[in-house]
Amino acid sequence: MKGICILGATGSIGVSTLDVVARHADHYRVVALTANNNVEVLYQQCLTHHPEYVVVAAEDKADAFREKIAASPVADIKVLAGADALQQVATLDQVDSVMAAIVGAAGLLPTLAAAKAGKTVLLANKEALVMSGDIFMQAVKESGAHLLPIDSEHNAIFQCMPGGYVAGSNAKQARRILLTASGGPFRTTPIEALDDVTPEQAVAHPKWDMGRKISVDSATMMNKGLELIEACLLFTMSPDDIQVVIHKQSIIHSMVDYVDGSVLAQMGNPDMRIPIAHAMAWPDRFDSGVEPLNIFDVKQMDFEEPDLQRFPCLRLAYEAIKAGGIMPTVLNAANEIAVDAFLHERIRFTEIANIIENTMSQFSADKADSLEQVLRADQQARDAAERLIETLVV
């Protein structure tokens, strides 16, 4: 029995993880669940999975949640609150695996804490790796932690690597990664119409069920840009050796091109339980609960290069990883601020990329030698992006 801590239990990845856990109760037991605001879903998860600990990150909701748990059939659950508690539960002795599914920069510190503690880190939070880069990978190496990617694309790449491959190492026979993308909801929308895109349109992803922030990232293809940066670190590849490929059917989740001309692809129905189950069972496999892919239903698969005029956020991600240093941190911070502003109708959809680019122009690619430096750059970039947004009128 392995103990699992799920950081971000009430989001789509957390819910899917608990679905897989329930199918394999003989393999996993839930030690800790965490949530930010969605305490009603968290309460139901407590009743079903009976964790030892829960963390309510929003401290103003914690007291009420404690009272609710105290009066429930699971009154022995320990309720913690605040950001520090996230790191506490991620490093508990009884925790073997940590599902890092908190969206955004908020997931950095608990995910890094899990890596430093030598846990098996199931990495669904791409921002943690984008922000801290070499610091995170060094923590994994020094602690002996296992790092298993959960993003469907990175999990696909991992599955296509040679047997015994370890994340962070170089597969010398692999010469190129083909990182697939659905293209989001605006793949064919006239560029001149993107100014008028609403938040509701942007979060309506054609293939994946994701949270609002990640759905907007998919619409701008910043999601793919962050995945590009993550892939460079996970697989020790140059950005010039990673090609983004739009594949609207989302059947092939990514490919690895080898020096002998072979291209290996991982395929499956678009359901996050597949990569979650793969990582949880690794190096073995078990049932994910997903219907098998019927290849005869696919009929055809299309591939195209992304238009960087339509998706300037992808261009900015390439620029950030090539610049190195703190630039990926700045990119991510500015994007989080800009996406939040768009979702609150403070800026237009097309202004997301403008905010990010103008924020990046205010920084130089200083080395990211310490966590303190990364966190300082993150805050400075957020402040700079917010100042830019305040000058705009929707």
From TrEMBL:
Ligand binding (1-deoxy-D-xylulose 5-phosphate): 126, 152-153, 182, 205, 218, 223-224, 227
UniProt keyword Cell wall biogenesis/degradation, yes or no: no
InterPro entries reported for this sequence: DXP_reductoisomerase, DXP_reductoisomerase_C, DXP_reductoisomerase_N, DXPR_C, DXPR_C_sf, NAD(P)-bd_dom_sf
Pathway participation: Isoprenoid biosynthesis; isopentenyl diphosphate biosynthesis via DXP pathway; isopentenyl diphosphate from 1-deoxy-D-xylulose 5-phosphate: step 1/6
Catalysed reactions, as listed in the record: 2-C-methyl-D-erythritol 4-phosphate + NADP(+) = 1-deoxy-D-xylulose 5-phosphate + NADPH + H(+)
UniProt key word NADP: yes
Keywords: Isoprene biosynthesis, Magnesium, Manganese, Metal-binding, NADP, Oxidoreductase
Residues binding NADPH: 10-13, 38, 125, 127, 211
Occurrences of domain 1-deoxy-D-xylulose 5-phosphate reductoisomerase N-terminal (ranges): 4-133
A GO biological-process term: isopentenyl diphosphate biosynthetic process, methylerythritol 4-phosphate pathway involved in terpenoid biosynthetic process
Domain DXP reductoisomerase C-terminal: 267-383
Domain 1-deoxy-D-xylulose 5-phosphate reductoisomerase C-terminal: 147-235
Molecular functions per Gene Ontology: 1-deoxy-D-xylulose-5-phosphate reductoisomerase activity; manganese ion binding; NADPH binding
Binding site for Mn(2+): 151, 153, 227
EC number: 1.1.1.267
Cofactor(s) recorded in Swiss-Prot or TrEMBL: Mg(2+); Mn(2+); Co(2+)
Family, per entry: Belongs to the DXR family.
Role according to the record: Catalyzes the NADPH-dependent rearrangement and reduction of 1-deoxy-D-xylulose-5-phosphate (DXP) to 2-C-methyl-D-erythritol 4-phosphate (MEP).
HAMAP family in the record: DXP_reductoisom
Descriptive protein name: 1-deoxy-D-xylulose 5-phosphate reductoisomerase
Organism the protein comes from: Methylomarinum roseum
Gene responsible for this protein: ispC
